[in-house]
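Task: sequence design from structure.
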């Protein structure tokens, strides 16, 4: 039996995911042209917990090991050349 249910939220811009305290388990990214970059912080103005660059025009899946990344809120501070992301969290 799982410790907690995993939920998903699709985001198309920067800002709060509005989910409150969470553990990020996986992120799927659909990137466009240029140099796609995603930066996630621990809430608004918090420390950077994930900062990734991607290849253009591809879909990427980033798996977070163990218990995931614990944050007070999932906050996307940089979303460059990325159409959308889906964050899986618990």
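Answer:
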């Amino acid at each position: 039996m799982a410790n907690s249910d995993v939920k998903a939220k699709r985001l198309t811009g920067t800002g709060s995911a509005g989910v409150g305290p969470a553990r990020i388990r996986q992120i799927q990214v659909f990137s466009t042209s240029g140099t796609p970059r995603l930066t996630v912080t621990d809430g608004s103005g918090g420390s950077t917990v994930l900062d990734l660059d991607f290849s253009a025009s591809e879909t990427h899946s980033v798996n977070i090991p163990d218990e995931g990344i614990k944050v007070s809120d999932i906050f996307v501070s940089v979303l460059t050349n990325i159409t959308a992301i889906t964050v899986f969290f618990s």
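The chain has a mean pLDDT of 93.
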